[in-house]
Amino acid sequence: MTQQSAVVVRPFGRTTPLQRNEMLAGLAFISPWFIGFLVFTAGPMIASLGLAFTEYDVLNPPKFVGLQNFQRLLTDPRLGLSLGNSIFYTVLHVPLVMMVALGLALLLNRVGKAAGFFRTVFYLPSITPAVAVGALWLWILNPRIGLINRGLALLGIAGPGWTTDPNWIKPGIVLMSLWSVGSTVILYLAALRNVPPELYEAARIDGANGWQQFRHITIPMISGTVFFTLVVNTIASLQIFTEVYTMYFGNMNSGAAASAGLFYNIYLFRQAFEFLRMGYASAMAWLLFVIIMILTVIQLRTSNRWVYYEGA
Predict the structure, then answer these.
(1) pLDDT digits (tens, 9 = 90+) for 63-118
(2) Which domain holds residue 216?
């Protein structure tokens, strides 16, 4: 005779002492993050939303002005210029970083035991302080004594004015952004290591060449990581600030970069902390939030067409 174990059915919503203790322990562990989120993220966001409807210069109490700050967004030519610069940078930066990172990851995936050393080499620039990166690249891009133009001179090519010609300032900043490609390389390398090798073996037996294997196996199998890096790099590109501010605006004498290097976050920062227009800067911040949210939603909606999730 088979002995069956009794199943105790508890009323919905009632928990055991053990479950309550586990829940309290979980809340205790998450409380530092939760308190930090409320104090340093959610709280300032709510405060900035309120300030967006005021005229506030830090020195005097906020004065409610309704939608004036948002109306000014529609007529401020410098805002359109800075937003255009940020979009231009994003359109160049995101695909370049993703392609360079994927190429390096493919090379590292074939290196073997030495991959650990090269992973460290590629990742180190990503943890270099942004101010130091800006100062370093201001020298590297110097039209007269910079390493890039000196290298081009050896090839008989006259280098452009990376830091003085308005037409070359943004491409120079995009070139600088490739310095910190290491974090994306590590993500792609991890994704490549998770692709089942038997898929490549089956493809080779069927006569698929290298490009066909890359297109029909590698890209689909790492598409989730590609999508993640697309979203993250897009958000980061639209918020670029420290490196460019260090290079062109730290001494309050930006020269040619006053227009070509005026990115959205830099213009927002100057409105808030140089001109003390905190209300207008808050409205700018919320406009950027809405733009990033719309782009992220579009990316999420379109991802169903090309992102492959195993088991989905």
Answers:
(1) 999 999 999 999 999 999 999 999 999 999 999 999 999 999 999 988 877 778 88
(2) 84-260
Structure tokens at 150: 């000196």
Closest residue by Cα to residue 124 from 189, 190, 186: 186
Residue 312 lies in a domain: no
> Under a CB-based contact definition with an 8 Å cutoff, are residues 278 and 56 in contact?
yes
How far is it, in rounded angstroms, from Cα 136 to Cα 192? Answer: 32
Total residue count of the chain as it appears in this document: 312
pLDDT per residue as tens digits for the range 210-231: 999 999 999 999 999 999 999 9
What are the distances in angstroms from CA 130 to CA 59, 125, 135, 136, 181? 31, 10, 9, 10, 13
- From the list 130, 39, 67, the residue with the least C-alpha distance to 286 is 67
Q: Return the residue matching tokens 């003085």.
A: 164
Let me know if residue 139 belongs to a domain: yes
- Distance CA(92)–CA(130), nearest Å, equals 20
Domain count, the chain: 1
> Which residues pair with residue 63 across a beta bridge?
55
Assign residue 220 the CATH number of its domain: 1.10.3720.10
Tell whether 161 is covered by a domain.
yes
pTM of the model: 0.87
Question: Is 142 a domain residue?
Answer: yes
